[in-house]
Amino acid sequence: xxxxxxxxxxxxxxxxxxxxxxxxxxxxxxxxxxxxxxxxxxxxxxxxxxxxxxxxxxxxxxxxxxxxxxxxxxxxxxxxxxxxxxxxxxxxxxxxxxxxxxxxxxxxxxxxxxxxxxxxxxxxxxxxxxxxxxxxxxxxxxxxxxxxxxxxxxxxxxxxxxxxxxxxxxxxxxxxxxxxxxxxxxxxxxxxxxxxxxxxxxxxxxxxxxxxxxxxxxxxxxxxxxxxxxxxxxxxxxxxxxxxxxxxxxxxxxxxxxxxxxxxxxxxxxxxxxxxxxxxxxxxxxxxxxxxxxxxxxxxxxxxxxxxxxxxxx
Length: 314
Prior knowledge:
Order of helices and strands: EHEEHHEHHHHHHHHHHH
Strand order of the largest sheet: 2-3-1-4
Keywords: Membrane, Transmembrane, Transmembrane helix
Structural class: alpha+beta
Helix content: 55-70%
Radius of gyration: 24 Å
Pfam families: DUF389
Protein name: DUF389 domain-containing protein
Number of helices: 14
Shape: elongated
Number of domains: 2
InterPro entries: DUF389 (IPR005240)
Strand content: 5-15%
Largest sheet: 4 strands, antiparallel
C-alpha cells in the first residue's frame, strides 16, 4: 500500500474525493477542509493499493491538482486494516508486479542529475578500478563496481525512452556524457603521477595480467551479461527489491572498463585502451536496451499510459 496526500484547490476537492471514492483500490479516505496554507486548499489523504496508484494519479492529474496543488506518495511499511486488505484484493493485478510510473520517473530523474556528488562517486570508482588493475586485485575491482553510480542515469535513459520523457533522457545522457570523461581524465592524471613516481610500472601492470583481463576481453558474454544486469536492475527498481541492485553493480564492466582505458592509454597500451572503451560502450548500450525492453513488456499490462509532464529544473 501507498499513502497518498493531495493538496486540492477547494473548488476541485469534491471531484478528487469522487475519484478516490469510486476506485476500489483506495481506502482510509480523510478530508481536512482548509488545512493547506501554501498552496491554499483542502488536504485529502488516502491509502491506495500499489496496482491502483497509476490510474488514480492519472485521474487526479486530469483535474489539474498536480499543477495547482500537489500530490505526494509514501510507502506504507505496515498496514493493519481489513479495509486495506479488501482494497488490495479489489485492485486489478498484483501489487508486487505493479509499476508506479510517476514514482519511477521521479526516482530515476533524481538519480540522474549531473551533480557534484554523482561526479565524485564516479571518479572515486574509476580511481579504485585503476588501483585494482595496477595491483591485479579483483576485490578492489568489485569495490569500484559497487561504488560506481552509473546505473541511475542508465535506468533513467531506459525509463525516458519508454515513457517518451525526452527531458529525462537528456538529463541522464548529460550526466553520463560529462561524468565518464571527467572521471577518466582524473584517473589519467593519477596514472601519470603514478608512472612518474614509479608507482605504476608498465611491465608490472600489463606484462603478465592474470585476474583482471576480463575487463578488456571482448566476447559475446560482455553483451549478454550487460543485458541480464540491465533487466535485473530495472526489475529491482520497479519491484522495490533494492538488494538485487548490488548484484547488478558487480555484474557489469562499466567503471572498470573506464578505469582500464584511462590507465592503459597513459601507459601506452593503446590496443587494450581501445578494447576497454568498446567494452564500456557495449555495457552501456546493453544495459539500456535490456532495461527498456523489460519496461516495455511490463507496460503492456498497464491500464493507463505514462504522463508526459517535463521534469522541473531543480
